[in-house]
Amino acid sequence: MNGFRHEIKLLLEKPDYFAMRTRLRALLEPDPNAGPDGEYFIRSLYFDDLAKHSYFEKLAGVADRKKYRLRVYGLSDSVIKLECKEKRGELIRKRSLGIRRDAADALIKGDFSPLREYDSALAKEVLSLHTGKGLMPSVVVDYDREAYLYPVSNVRLTFDKALHAGFSCADVFDPNLPTLPVFEREQVIFEIKYDDVLPKHLQLILADSHGSKLALSKFTLCRDAMSRFKP
């Protein structure tokens, strides 16, 4: 299908992460967008509607579903993306639209009207969901990403660490935004994305992994973490 890729998610304990990282570093190139330490910080504000379709469809394992989010990198406003992550069975696709800081600030506050200024199918889709189903900010998702690339089949392997949940309707550019750690043992989410077929040598490495398949998304994990929070 056009633009769709395969995705595998595993939850690794810290010793398994270190072992897997050592093996991959010998074979793959690091993401050129990473900083000197090989990582970069990602913050996303996820949206959900009044019926919480994104949350409950994920819990129910609905095969075909979509999630919408606002994403920034390193708390900078130089790159701000409005995104839709779409899943069809075992395949995923991401659609993105770069937006201005003033539009992002409005979305954070629940004002979706600036999207009318964008000649974009995604902007129209998000605006329609806001108007028709009450799509609004739901939860902030923070993590540090360590990524590696392999050119065959456009393979991308990422370790997402220090997963934290933050409050919706909060300034995603605020370095002092209060957040909560999601994992007690600092587990790492290992994601493998590829176009067609995963190369054999990478299949063998993954087969040796002691990670468990992750059924829940970062969005649902963070939503659950915030629901447990009692100030």
Explain this structure to me?
- With 231 residues, the chain is α+β, with helices and mostly antiparallel strands.
- The protein has one domain (5-228): VTC, catalytic tunnel domain (mRNA Triphosphatase Cet1, Chain A).
- Helices cover 26% and strands 39% of the residues.
- It is built from six helices and eleven strands.
- The chain has helices spanning 14-25, 53-60, 101-108, 121-133, 200-207, 218-228, and strands at 5-12, 29-30, 39-48, 64-73, 76-88, 91-98, 136-150, 155-166, 179-181, 188-194, 212-213.
- Strands 1-6-5-4-3-7-8-10 form an eight-stranded antiparallel beta barrel, surrounded by five helices.
- The longest helix is centred in the middle third of the chain and has 13 residues, at 121-133.
- The radius of gyration is 18 Å and the shape is globular.
- The termini are far apart.
- 27% of the residues are buried.
- The model has no long low-confidence stretch (mean pLDDT 93).
